Amino acid sequence: MVCLLAAVSPAQQAKGKQHTLKGKVTDVSKDRLTVDHAAVPGYMGAMVMPYKVDKPDILAKVKKGDQIEAIVYEDDYTLYDVKVVPPTADTKAKTK
What we know:
Blueprint: H1 2-14, E1 18-28, E2 33-37, E3 47-53, E4 67-73, E5 76-85, H2 89-95
Parallel strand pairs: 3-5
Antiparallel strand pairs: 1-2, 1-4, 2-3, 4-5
């Protein structure tokens, strides 16, 4: 068990520091999601940007306008563990 944890830890560290990205999908292409996302504190400002995804099957599930949450790692512009989330009160107010 200890060996397994030791093997996982360096792999996670190699990806860099982990952050949570929250935003709205503005486009879904065959290999990317374009996301209008809020600032990611300690990493990047708010912007619209295309991202690769770790699991391509998510591209068939996510649609334009969906609110998502995902993990990003510093210096790796891939979205990991993408989840569609219900709109927050802030995002509902912006769409009215």
